Structure formats: structure tokens, C-alpha cells
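Now read this:
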Amino acid sequence: MDVVEALARRRSCRGFLPTAVPGEVVERVLALASRSASNSNSQPWQVHVVTGAAKRRLTEDLLAAYDTDQRDRDYDYQPREWPEPFRGRRRDFGDRLYGEALGIARADAERRLAHHRRNYDFFGAPVGMILTVSRRPRQGALVDAGLFLQALMLAATAEGLDTCAQASLIDFSAVLRRNLRIPDEQLIVCGLSLGHGDRDHLTTRCRTARLPVPAFATFHDAEDEYCGA
């Protein structure tokens, strides 16, 4: 699969089959992702891969923390109040996922929370990952983490696998640190589910739109008049 096809096929999968992913495939995907660009080749990322019994223990602790509201995140991933146009885009996504795909009404908070809770079981995926970066390079390391994460998801797509990047998992950083022995020097960036997507899962009906290029790109050519001070 070439990069164009991988970019077109990648999607956030929220329903996985229990089919195991061979360890050598996981390592191959990670090796490809490690080719990502980073500031001065600093490569500030670390990845904690959980499968089998380790994943079951982590999932149990995460769900217990979720059910008792023991939130403890390393950083604020998102604002408390979303301004437009981002708020509208999030609302559209929620309507597509919960309303169109899952058939859950906006007012049905209980069922919406039940679906959100599945984040902490990695949506049933056989492989879970927690991505961290060193705090010492400061905020620039988060840019490097984003580059690594995208490469990881594309490499997985090329292997015929599905993924879902999950910011929700950082809500319980204390649980992650305790289970995975993550030192305080490492900032927990996000989680990732990896495995074979269940094509019959209701969430596969969720299809999100993308803005056309003119909506986010400005092209400056040599004929533009320079307006300096």
C-alpha cells in the first residue's frame, strides 16, 4: 500500500475484533514510525505497548478510576469551552457518531457515557499503546509526538490494521504511571488502540468530512505585492 492509499483509508476505529496481532508486526509498525521527523533528531517519544494480561490489568484499573471519577491528567488537551468554528465541527462529529451511527439521542447522556467508557478498554482492541515524550524538550516535543503518531497510524494501515488515537486515556495519568511505571519526567501524550477493525460494528457507519484545501490553505506566489512597514 502506498502512502496515498494509506492516508485515504486511515480512520478512527472504535470497534475491534479480538484477533491477535503478532508481536513482529507491532514492532515493524513501530520501527517505521520511528523514521518520523523530530527536532534535531531528538526522538523524544517513548511507547508503552500492552497486550494480554497486562492490558487486562490496566483496563480494569482504568475502568475503576473512570467509574469513581479519579481524573488526574498531565496537561489540558482541550479547552473548557470550544470557540467556533471548532465547536461546530465537534458537534457535527458527535451527531454523526452518536446519532447516525449508534442511534443515541443527544439527550441520552447515560448511553453516550456508556459508549465513551469503552475508551478505557481500548474499544476491545488486542493491543493498546500509551505514547509519552520527555518533558525536557518542552512543548516542541508534542509536535514531534504528533508526527510520530501519524506515522504510526499510517504504518498500521499499510499492514491492514486499524487504529484509534485516544486523548481520553490521559484523564487517568496516575493509573497509567502506576501500571506501566512511567516516570514523572515523561509527559503522557495520548493512547492508541490497534488491531483488526470489526467491519460490522455500528461505529463503522461514522464518516467524517474534511475541509476543502482553500478553506485552510493560503497560497502566496511571487507576484504578491509585499506590504512592509
Observations:
- The chain has a mean pLDDT of 94.
- Residues 3-76+119-202 form a domain with the NADH Oxidase fold (CATH 3.40.109.10).
